[in-house]
Design brief:
Chain A: This is ABC transporter permease. Chain B: It comes from Taklimakanibacter albus. The complex is a heterodimer of chains A (about 325) and B (about 300). Chain A is mainly α. Chain A folds into two domains: about 70 residues, no CATH class; about 240 residues, MetI-like (MetI-like fold, Orthogonal Bundle), CATH 1.10.3720. Chain A is about 75% helix and about 0% strand. Chain A is built from 13 helices and no strands. In chain A, helix 5 crosses helix 9 and helix 8 packs across helix 9. Chain B is α/β, with parallel strands linked by helices. The chains are: A mainly alpha (about 325), B alpha/beta (about 300).
Chain lengths: ~325, ~300
């Protein structure tokens, strides 16, 4: 087990290094540079050269990378060029907002997808199943940002029940010490803040969740229907258990396993989706900051954000692998 | 003659889309404490009868006519939920393939005690105790340890023992065993058969034993129904079945049973004449049935 863990850790390091290297090179070879963004038009060549040297951008790219890597390994990811603040503290300031949004979206996707899959499998072969299949197709056919736009129009403009921008109403006085507003509002039993947060987060979360919910529903339904044909399910029926109970207590656990693997991969797509959906809802998360960083050619900030996203992906995959073993007793002792 | 515990009368089932009959007016009765053999080749409809008893026929199969009664109550007249509960309290099923009949993600303990707790309303501690006692009765060493295991950690023979323990745990009045030894090694088969025979005698359970093995019938059962193409062609006591098989198919079935002491006589395939005769008989049955149906 510890050997496996070491291999795992090693491959994680290689992945992160690869991502860091590729991004570092890419953002420096694409057109546009941060110095041009900082200086007013008509700045002299001498000024440009001076500033370029100040940020070390005059050195060869590989040399720049080694300098950056050396500092990064000591926990120093540099200063943001556009915001003139420490990259890591900027990222950690925004990360909780994105994690909360993505987690809320995941919870919604699992609840919605799971409920739809169970309902469709319970009423397999009827109009209910056909209806759910159609709904799944529809939510898969539209990407998350289009769902976001639709929700803004429907529930932000036509029937304005939800807030269409930001994470929380600016008028609210937040007594929080961490960036995890949603969790803190629950822990501190601040219902007013919780409701205000939900009023802001529900639409972007739902936009992110719908495509994933459809994937989960479709996949889980197929596995459930297959599991319902198994001999152990037939035996449970002869024991006197109702069809619904057989579905939930016999078939579900075995059917979840194949769904989980794909849902894990799909969840990383959802994290990627936060970039554009956060922008759409002016949600102050990491994704929104990433777009600003790209527009401003803020090289250290882009580098830091991408690395954090890569780390999140790696962690998700690790969690999926671990829960896979937890759910499937046949893998537990290996 | 005591009253039958399980009574199947004139049961006909058919494929929904084609209308082809899979069971042709099957009648059979199992009295309390009796072991009744249901014999026939693969595809004769043996398992279909078992599934009809438990009300778990495949969706593509419909019941055309007939009753299945247990304790005098007509099961076909009940709603699906009521029927499941009714039969779950009174009867149990021992499936054919122990490798697929246990849920891979549930511990052995739960798979024996689930019926006891949720259908029979036994307290959890008592159900656990009962499960352990039953595992001991089916000769599994260290039941407490085995109860914590998952199915993949047990051999095929062990799993079949677990399924037998689970079937007897609720003290059902009737057990339907669907070829419970077919999927096992020959040596394990004998142990499992002896085990079922012993358990049945001790618990006084009525047993409907489905098999294609006539040797097993002779050893275990008192009465027998011989099934061919979904039709009962012979129904009698086992003693008379072997002493004086009436139907040509029964005789052919006996001739086809391998006998190591007389290898030159055994493994005789059915003659073309017999196959033709059987086909004619089935066709006649169907023609008669169609005529009756047409007259209402």
């Amino acid at each position: 087990m510890s050997r496996n863990l070491l291999i795992r850790l090693g491959s994680t390091m290689v992945t992160l290094f690869g991502v860091a290297f590729i991004v570092f090179i890419l953002v420096r070879v694409v057109p546009g540079n941060p110095i041009a963004m900082m200086l007013p038009p008509g700045a002299s060549d001498a000024d440009i050269a001076l500033l370029t040297a100040h940020y070390g951008l005059d050195k060869p790219i590989l040399t720049q990378f080694w300098i950056w890597l050396g500092r990064a390994l000591q926990g120093d990811f540099g200063m943001s060029i556009s915001l003139r603040q420490d990259v890591m503290s900027l990222i950690f300031g925004r990360l909780p907002a994105t994690l909360e949004l993505a987690t809320l979206a995941l919870v919604i996707a699992m609840a919605l997808g799971g409920a739809l899959a169970i309902t469709a499998a319970r009423f397999r072969g009827t109009a209910v199943e056909t209806g759910i299949d159609l709904a799944n197709g529809a939510s898969l056919a539209m990407p998350d940002f289009l769902w976001g736009l639709t929700f803004i129009l429907l529930f932000g403009v036509l029937i304005p029940v939800f807030a269409i921008s930001g994470r929380v109403s600016p008028s609210l006085d937040l007594p929080f010490v961490t960036g995890f507003y949603l969790i803190e509002s629950i822990l501190r039993l601040r219902v007013d803040i919780f409701l205000d947060l939900m009023r802001h987060m529900l639409m972007p979360a739902l936009a992110l969740a719908l495509p994933l919910a459809a994937v989960i529903a479709q996949l889980l339904k197929t596995s459930l229907k297959e599991a319902m044909q198994q001999d152990y399910v037939m035996l449970a029926r002869t024991k006197g258990f109702s069809e619904t109970r057989v579905l939930i207590s016999e078939a579900l656990r075995n059917a979840v396993i194949p769904t989980l693997t794909l849902a894990g991969v799909q969840f990383t797509f959802l994290i990627g989706g936060t970039v554009i959906v956060e922008r759409l809802f002016s949600y102050e998360g990491l994704g929104n900051m990433a777009i600003d960083a790209v527009i401003n050619r803020d090289l250290p900030l882009i580098q830091g954000i991408v690395l954090v996203f890569a780390l999140i992906f790696v962690v998700i995959n690790l969690i999926v692998d671990l829960s896979y073993a937890l759910l499937n007793p046949r893998l537990r002792h290996g | 003659m005591t009253e039958a515990y399980l009574d199947i009368r004139d049961l006909s089932v058919a494929l929904q889309h084609s209308g082809d009959r899979l069971l042709r007016r099957v009648s059979l009765a199992v009295r309390p404490g009796e072991v009744h053999a249901l014999v026939g080749e693969s595809g004769a409809g043996k398992s279909m009868i078992a599934r009809a008893v438990f009300g778990i026929l495949p969706k593509a199969v419909t019941i055309l006519e007939g009753q299945v009664t247990i304790e005098g109550a007509d099961l076909n007249g009940m709603s699906e939920a009521a029927r499941r509960l009714f039969i779950g309290k009174r009867a149990a099923f021992i499936p054919q393939d122990p490798l697929t009949a246990l849920n891979p993600s549930k511990r052995i303990a739960d798979q024996i005690s689930d019926r006891l707790i949720h259908i029979l309303g036994m307290p959890k501690a008592k159900a656990h105790e009962r499960a352990a006692a039953l595992l001991e009765e089916v000769k599994i060493a260290d039941p407490e340890r085995v109860m914590r295991l998952y199915p993949h950690e047990l051999s095929g023979g062990m799993r079949q023992r677990v399924l037998i323990a689970a079937a007897f745990a609720g003290e059902p009045r009737l057990i339907v065993a669907d070829e419970p030894t077919t999927a096992l090694d020959v040596t394990v088969q004998r142990q499992i058969l002896a085990l079922i025979a012993g358990m049945q005698a001790r618990h006084g359970t009525a047993l409907l034993f489905i098999t294609h093995n006539l040797g097993v019938v002779a050893k275990l059962c008192q009465t027998a129904s011989v099934l061919y193409a979904g039709k009962v062609v012979e129904q009698t006591s086992v003693r008379r079945l072997f002493a004086d098989p009436r139907h040509a198919y029964t005789r052919a079935l006996m001739a086809a049973t391998p006998r190591y002491d007389r290898p030159e006589e055994s493994l005789k395939p059915a003659s073309p004449e017999l196959m033709g005769e059987l086909a004619r008989e089935v066709a006649e049955t169907d023609a008669l049935w169609a005529k009756e149906r047409a007259h209402g």
